[in-house]
């Protein structure tokens, strides 16, 4: 707990400055009631690449590449790597917050304000301990389940409202002798990595497309009933 308190003190204040300066120098984008924000959660930095906690980043990278959406050109805006485009004919903003996981909500809040995106039109892609590896679960609401990124989004963005779409990418729970903190920061086994890259991440991209094209109810039926 101590380390995350320190991180918030060091990173949180600059993030608030970024949001204020961003709104002053860059006017909000004209509202489009069809626009969605798709957020992939993870931790920035090379040391976290390929870890379980960065499954959301992995999905966003593949989705952006498949749809021809450039993700920020190596730079950041509003505390995130951003990409604007269309998927299934729907205007979207893809976002990979570049703060530590438990500060993700601050970036998401800034992005939503800048693009004037409704809370009902955000989809968060993230790793989930209670979903088996290589499995996906699409939900329209729910608690944070101990996930600090989701917890921060609930606190910073929705004011405690848990009714926003989320796509859970399964990472499984650790063995009894392994702490959850250590588990989420380890890399997938080679067998798991191959299965994820060959099947799961592609299915996750398809799930995002289904949400945009069909709406949550039909997308949940398709994703959650897949064998």
UniProtKB/TrEMBL annotation:
Entry keyword set: Hydrolase, RNA-binding, tRNA-binding
Broad class of enzyme this protein falls into: hydrolase
InterPro entries assigned to the protein according to its UniProt record, in alphabetical order: Pept_tRNA_hydro (IPR001328), Pept_tRNA_hydro_CS (IPR018171), Pept_tRNA_hydro_sf (IPR036416)
E.C. no: 3.1.1.29
Entry-linked Gene3D superfamilies: Peptidyl-tRNA hydrolase
Pfam families xref list: Pept_tRNA_hydro (PF01195)
MF terms (GO), sorted A to Z: peptidyl-tRNA hydrolase activity; tRNA binding
Family: Belongs to the PTH family.
Name of the protein this chain belongs to: peptidyl-tRNA hydrolase
């Amino acid at each position: 707990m101590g380390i995350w308190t320190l991180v918030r003190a060091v990173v949180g204040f600059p993030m608030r400055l970024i949001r204020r300066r961003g709104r002053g120098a860059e006017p909000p984008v004209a509202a489009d009631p069809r626009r969605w924000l798709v957020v992939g959660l993870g931790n920035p930095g090379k040391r976290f690449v390929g870890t379980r906690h960065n499954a959301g980043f992995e999905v966003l990278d593949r989705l952006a590449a498949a749809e021809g959406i450039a993700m920020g050109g190596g730079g950041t805006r509003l505390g995130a790597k951003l990409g604007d485009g269309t998927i299934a004919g729907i205007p979207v903003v893809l976002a990979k917050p570049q703060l530590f996981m438990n500060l993700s909500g601050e970036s998401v809040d800034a992005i939503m304000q800048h693009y004037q995106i409704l809370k009902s039109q955000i989809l968060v892609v993230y790793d989930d301990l209670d979903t088996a590896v290589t499995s996906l679960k699409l939900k329209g609401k729910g608690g944070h389940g101990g996930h600090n990124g989701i917890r921060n989004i609930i606190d910073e963005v929705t004011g405690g409202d848990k009714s926003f779409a989320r796509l859970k990418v399964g990472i499984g729970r650790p063995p009894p002798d392994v702490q959850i903190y250590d588990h989420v920061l380890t890399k997938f086994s080679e067998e798991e990595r191959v299965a994820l890259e060959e099947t799961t991440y592609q299915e996750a991209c398809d799930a995002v497309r289904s949400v945009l094209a069909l709406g949550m109810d039909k997308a949940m039926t398709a994703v959650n009933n897949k064998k």
